[in-house]
Amino acid sequence: MLSPVNILTLPLVVPQGWAPLEPVDGLRALLVFIGYPALLFATVVLLVLLPRLVRGGSAAGTDSEWFGGPRKSGDELAAPDGEGSKAGGAGARW
């Protein structure tokens, strides 16, 4: 039967038959931790932008849009033009 100490240190024991650890050089570490993720990121970006580029559109997007900016329609309420003006919307007083 395993004692509690053996159960706690079990993950630290290298199983029999495993090859000894070999050191990893810096170039391979950079390739694994930076190169492969960068390649995966570039592939995803290319797959997202490729249909738009094939259709002839630009990759930058559509025209600028100003949310909440001034509107150019004639059905808006007129702004108040003086102190006693009732134009412009709600005018609650205390």
Automatic annotation (TrEMBL):
Keyword Transmembrane helix among UniProt keywords: yes
UniProt KW keywords: Membrane, Transmembrane, Transmembrane helix
Name of this protein: Uncharacterized protein
Top-rank taxon, per record: Bacteria
Biased composition (Gly residues): 85-94
Region (Disordered): 58-94
Segments crossing the lipid bilayer: 29-50
Annotated organism of origin: Nocardioides phosphati
